[in-house]
């Protein structure tokens, strides 16, 4: 599946999903992760909240340990905050 989001690592938490055969109508939750990999980024530990309105995923809270300097973190945050993640029904 080209264009799919590829994540790796250990993730735990609680996510509530509502929907029907037409797809997801609403989703929200809190997750924690260890040794999370996304493309070239490696996070030692991450906590995040996730909200989805059925078509667009929003991450209103993200806290993680990247092991970078503050200027590198600010550059990475600019990239992360510009990401648009969409739910796709296959």
Report on this model:
With 90 residues, the protein is mainly beta. The chain has 1 helix and 5 strands. The chain has one helix at 70-81; strands at residues 7-20, 23-38, 41-52, 56-65, 85-86. It has a 5-stranded antiparallel β-sheet with strand order 1-2-3-4-5, with no helix packed on it.
How would you summarize this macromolecular structure in one to three sentences?
With 90 residues, this protein is mainly β. It has one helix at 70-81; strands at residues 7-20, 23-38, 41-52, 56-65, 85-86.
Topology, pairings included?
Blueprint: E1 7-20, E2 23-38, E3 41-52, E4 56-65, H1 70-81, E5 85-86
Antiparallel strand pairs: 1-2, 2-3, 3-4, 4-5
Strand content: over 45%
Total DSSP E strands: 5
Terminal Cα span: 9 Å
Largest sheet: 5 strands, antiparallel
CA-based gyration radius = 14 Å
């Amino acid at each position: 599946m080209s264009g799919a989001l590829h994540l790796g690592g250990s993730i735990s938490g609680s996510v509530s999903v509502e929907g029907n055969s037409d797809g997801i109508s609403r989703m929200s939750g809190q997750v924690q992760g260890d040794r999370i990999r996304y493309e070239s980024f490696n996070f030692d530990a991450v906590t995040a909240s996730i909200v989805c309105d059925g078509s667009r995923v929003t991450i209103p809270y993200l806290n993680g340990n990247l092991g970078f300097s503050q200027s590198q973190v600010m550059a990475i945050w600019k990239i992360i905050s510009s990401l648009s993640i969409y739910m796709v029904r296959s």
